Amino acid sequence: MSSFRHSFRRDGKTALVQTDRGRIRGYEHDGLRIFKGIPYAKARRFHAPEPAEPWPGVFDASNYGYVCPLLTNDPPRGELYVPHRFWPMDENCLNLNIWTPAAEEAKRPVLVWLHGGGYEAGSSIEQTAYDGENLSRTGNTVVVSINHRLNILGYFDLSDFGDEYANSGNAGGEDIIAALRWIRENIAAFGGNPENVTVFGQSGGGAKVTTLLQSPAADGLFTKGVVMSGVIGPVLADAEGTGKELAEAVMKELGIRSVKELEQADYAAFAKAFRKVRPALKAAGKYTGGCPHPNQYYLGDPLVHGFRKETAHIPLLVGSVFGEFTSFTPLPWDRETLPEEAQEQMIREALGEKPAEALIPLFREAYPDRKTIDLLRLDSVFRLPEISYIRERSKLNSCTWSYLFNMDQPIDGGNTPWHCCDIPYFFRNIDLVEYPHGDIGDPQLASRVQNEAAEILLAFARTGNPNNTAVPDWPASEPGKEYVLVMDAHTRVKENYDHRLMETCAKYAEEIMRRMAAQEANIQH
Known about the structure:
The chain contains 15 helices and 15 strands. β10, α4 and β11 (224-228) form a beta-alpha-beta unit. By secondary structure, it is of the alpha/beta class. The chain has helices at 133-139, 151-154, 171-186, 204-213, 244-254, 259-264, 267-283, 302-305, 340-351, 353-366, 383-394, 423-426, 445-463, 499-507, 509-520, and strands at 8-9, 16-18, 23-25, 27-29, 32-39, 58-60, 95-100, 108-114, 142-146, 192-202, 224-228, 316-321, 400-405, 483-487, 492-495. The strands form 2 sheets. A 12-stranded mixed sheet has the order 1-4-5-7-9-8-10-11-12-13-14-15, sandwiched between helices. Strands 2-3-6 form a 3-stranded mixed sheet, with no helix packed on it.
């Protein structure tokens, strides 16, 4: 039995903080002050956020606030791979959560978490591993997580219907900027340094870091960024075009005639109408929302439009995971017993003779410690645009670092790392999820990699440089030299180690995707 004794306190004097909207009270747990569900803004549907109303008395910040309504009610699945938490939904969702060692004038680094789920789903507490306690406690940092508008509430362009809707296609991004403004004005009272704010996020959350870099209104509100599996190319491409046809189709489905009526429409009916009309518009290449909309407020994907020079000084830490979307299911083979000849034959059958012949030697060169069959789990959807992103970003500065999370996880007999599996490591939360604690022959490995990941993030938050005593010397990338920190049982820095492999994956991408789709047509995911 553990000898650690938890502590808890909530009373009239504990975790009491004055903000610009009024006093709030959280609680104390194991030496941390925790505040939940703090309103940072308010907003009418499709409109820009405004400051939250001041409140009388003391706001109770012991409960998580509403999360943004989702488009669909998906059934729980894959919870051992990505453990979730579900919560009441409401459009009144502009709130944030704070973990801090003490509410005092300490000027601690501030880490602001932007959740994943693309721009359509997710929440600040959606994944169990999003909890900020351990990162705050062990790193002496202030951790903040944000809820903001999503899907048709946050990314629905109605600019053709009047100036008041000029940036409705980026309302969710405006919410994040409003939260960062609130943090600038108030975080000092929670022990944070408003001049040292790092935004970090995974998947859609990582993409939102890039969106902030491309949004002039966010300038000066953060000092560093961490993009975890957030360079996703066409998967989260900008929503180009106008939303006029989409809005008219939705209104026709609802039997209404104006956007003002759409502002008041029942959300469930609105979402149902949107889901009904979206497929045909999408098939025709028309605007369907759900992603940032390039305009004067958001200047677009930097791989298309270039990085804004105004943000060139901001250090970035950019990385992804070996398997990403390919590794969400158990391995259909035993890597330990499968003969090498059989591995090569399976690759030829899956990818085709020419792609296999080209890719197998390059994969062995890039990943000499992996089984050849792991080629079939290798991600290129994230990694290919990420290489371009890091190359273009490093042309502007000497403060862009690259990493790859390469550590297999002990689940279903052992699996290549999947999208999201690195989050518990960076948050120091592997004890909140089951899979890191399986039998891997080295009981200390998960803890060691967790320490490396968390110390990288904390060092970066403190100084803008991720180097620390837990990892080898790690240079920032240069335009022709990507120095990738490969994180696994033998964490090391490798230069351009997979570039030829990725270039060849791109060359055969269409053929590979066609063959894989044909083989998986009868598989339920």
